[in-house]
Each structure stands twice: as structure tokens, then as C-alpha cells.
């Protein structure tokens, strides 16, 4: 893991990038307060990578960290910047930050955000540590990401309510949760919510298998069913599944797409604690002179993983949970 002279750090910049995730504010708060505790100054970079280019830097103080722990979203705003793939754009961002007196960075985001962070160090030796912040829980090298637990609980609450309606009307529902390339939310929600079947990228279940599953339940007197589908590359996938099921079986499946409600709202206790631990650990990692890495959690313990090891690797849903979901819903 790269080392740098930690005594050169006087001011740390913090930014959130990519999709927002509940708990990002808790991470900002922890990183800021730990840095201030050690006599460092802190600057918030508003809007993520776009803010680096537009010089949107704001001081973060003890006072400004008050009353944000319980808030969803991110007080620093967030965004995406495709132009950051260009080397000259990254060079301008670094020049702006150095001119503003920022000596090191804490990046809170997902895989795309970490790619940009990794390049800032590789090209300009700008010290940086990442915190995994995404509801998808798909970052390699950490058991959990900031926002995942909240997203699961928000989705589960909605599914519990939908099941009441499904049971009252003897209906089949398909509930679509977020997860473009990953099924972590779908599987956790499916197991916790007692879903009859779960569709997600890592699972090869077919429409015919789902229909057979529903029919087995009907044969033993089951009147209603809930299917969970990860959105995949095309949000609205649940409508395609509903139509395929209708054509093959005649079952009329109602669709409910939960969408972005899973990214908002007050973070759970688990996400607040995780974000606080990771935010504090990011500052301590920089104070040790370590950088170009992500701080995560493995087996309940804090860990640091070099960006080079975390990036571009697929984190797969555990087969044990997939099989458990199948057995419990049989």
C-alpha cells in the first residue's frame, strides 16, 4: 500500500460521489470530527468531481456537523462527471484543490468514484482514501457498504405492506428493487420478506420455473405470491416479467417498482454505525501515511484494501443465501 509523509497533511477534503446512499452524512460527520480532533482543517467539496472543477469548496466545522447524523442523502451533494475520464480534466481538478490548500482526500462513493480516486493518486500522487458508499453492496473487499442496510429495510417495509394487499385480494405481485448489476438487495429482501422467487443477475431462475413455483403453492392452498426482481440494466424489468408470466400461465401479476425511495430516508442504526466507523478509520489511515485504498469491514473488523485490488472485481451474492431463499419458499 502506498505511503506518503503524513505530517504534510494540514487540510483534508471530503466529497461524496455517484449515487447517494443513506449514511453518507454520518460518514462525513465522523471523518470531519475526527480530523478536527487531531488539529486538521476540513473542506467539503460540493457536488463531487464537478465541484473540484468549479472550485466549490466549503469549510466543514464542528458546528456544521450538527443535526446531520440522521439525515438521508448527502449535505455535500453528489454528481457524476463523465469528463473525469480525461487526464487533463483530472489535472485541472488537482490544481484547483492544491490552490485551495487541500492536501488529501476522503472519497465516499462506489466503484466509479473509486476509479477516479485511484487515478488522482496514480497520476498526481494526491493522497486519498475511499469509503464504500452505495446501496448496491457490490464493492469488492468489504462485507457491507454504507446505505445497503437502509435500502433493504426500506424495501422490506414496502413489501410487507404489499403482501397485505396481495393476501387480501389473492394476487400475484412482482416487486422491483434496485440493483443494476448486483442482487444483494433482492436476495436479502427476498429472504426477509418470504418471496416465492427472486430474479437477479447472479440467479438463473427462468419464468417457467417461477410459474411452476407459484403453481406448487396454489396446489397446497396458497392464494397470493410475491416475486422479487432486481431492476438490472433496464429499470422496469418487472413489467417484462409480468407480461411473460401472463402469456405463459394466464396469471395477472401486479407490478410495484420501488425505485429511488430505497436511496432516501433516514439511515438505520447499522448504517450510521458503519459509516461512523469507516469515516473515522479513513482519517486514521491518512494519519498513518497510507492512501490509494478503501477502508471497509470484513468479519466485523475494519480493513484497508488497495484500490487496485478492489476495482474491477465482481462481488457475488453468496450461494448459501440463494439456496436458503429457494428452500424456504418451496
What can you see in these coordinates?
The chain is α/β, with parallel strands linked by helices. It folds into 2 domains: 6-147 and 267-310, 3-Layer(aba) Sandwich (Rossmann fold), CATH 3.40.50.450; 148-264, Rossmann fold. It is 42% helix and 17% strand. It is built from 11 helices and 11 strands. The strands form 2 sheets. A 7-stranded mixed beta sheet has the order 3-2-1-4-5-10-11, sandwiched between helices. A 4-stranded parallel beta sheet has the order 7-8-6-9, sandwiched between helices. The N and C termini lie far apart (47 Å). The mean pLDDT is 93.
SSE string: EHEHEHEHEHEHEHEHEHEEHH
Distance between the termini: 47 Å
> What level of helicity do the residues show?
40-55%
CATH topological fold name of the largest domain: Rossmann fold
Strand and helix map with partners:
Blueprint: E1 11-16, H1 24-37, E2 41-45, H2 49-53, E3 57-59, H3 87-99, E4 104-109, H4 111-124, E5 128-132, H5 148-169, E6 172-177, H6 184-193, E7 197-199, H7 207-219, E8 225-230, H8 237-249, E9 253-257, H9 269-287, E10 293-298, E11 301-306, H10 307-310, H11 319-328
Parallel strand pairs: 1-2, 1-4, 4-5, 5-10, 6-8, 6-9, 7-8
Antiparallel strand pairs: 2-3, 10-11
Helix pairs in contact: 1-9, 5-6, 6-11, 7-8
Amino acid at each position: 500500500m502506498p505511503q506518503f509523509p503524513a505530517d504534510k497533511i494540514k487540510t483534508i477534503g471530503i466529497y461524496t460521489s455517484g449515487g447517494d446512499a443513506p449514511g453518507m452524512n454520518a460518514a462525513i460527520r465522523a471523518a470531519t470530527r475526527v480530523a478536527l480532533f487531531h488539529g486538521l482543517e476540513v473542506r467539503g467539496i460540493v457536488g463531487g468531481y464537478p465541484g473540484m472543477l468549479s472550485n466549490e469548496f466549503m469549510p466543514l466545522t464542528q458546528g456544521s456537523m450538527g443535526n446531520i447524523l440522521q439525515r438521508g442523502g448527502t449535505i455535500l451533494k453528489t454528481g457524476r462527471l463523465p469528463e473525469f475520464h480525461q487526464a487533463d480534466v483530472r489535472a485541472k481538478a488537482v490544481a484547483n484543490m492544491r490552490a485551495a490548500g487541500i492536501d488529501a482526500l476522503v472519497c465516499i462513493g462506489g466503484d466509479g468514484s473509486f476509479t477516479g480516486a485511484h487515478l488522482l493518486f496514480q497520476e498526481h500522487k494526491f493522497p486519498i482514501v475511499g469509503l464504500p458508499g452505495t446501496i448496491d453492496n457490490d464493492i469488492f473487499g468489504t462485507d457491507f457498504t454504507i446505505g445497503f442496510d437502509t435500502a433493504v429495510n426500506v424495501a422490506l417495509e414496502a413489501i410487507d405492506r404489499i403482501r397485505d394487499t396481495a393476501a387480501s385480494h389473492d394476487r400475484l405481485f412482482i416487486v422491483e428493487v434496485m440493483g443494476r448489476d448486483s442482487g444483494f438487495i433482492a436476495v436479502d429482501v427476498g429472504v426477509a420478506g418470504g418471496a416465492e422467487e427472486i430474479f437477479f443477475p447472479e440467479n438463473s431462475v427462468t419464468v417457467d420455473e417461477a410459474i411452476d413455483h407459484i403453481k406448487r403453492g396454489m396446489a397446497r392452498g396458497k392464494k397470493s405470491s410475491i416475486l422479487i426482481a432486481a431492476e438490472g440494466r433496464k429499470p422496469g424489468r418487472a413489467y417484462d416479467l409480468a407480461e411473460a408470466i401472463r402469456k405463459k400461465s394466464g396469471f395477472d401479476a401486479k407490478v410495484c417498482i420501488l425505485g429511488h425511495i430505497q436511496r432516501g430516508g433516514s439511515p438505520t442504526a447499522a448504517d450510521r454505525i458503519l459509516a461512523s466507523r469507516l469515516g473515522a478509520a479513513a482519517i486514521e489511515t491518512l494519519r498513518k501515511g497510507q492512501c490509494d485504498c478503501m477502508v471497509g469491514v470484513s468479519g466485523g473488523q475494519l480493513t484497508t484494501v488497495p484500490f487496485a485490488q478492489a476495482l474491477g472485481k465482481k462481488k457475488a451474492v453468496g450461494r448459501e443465501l440463494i439456496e436458503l431463499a429457494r428452500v424456504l419458499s418451496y
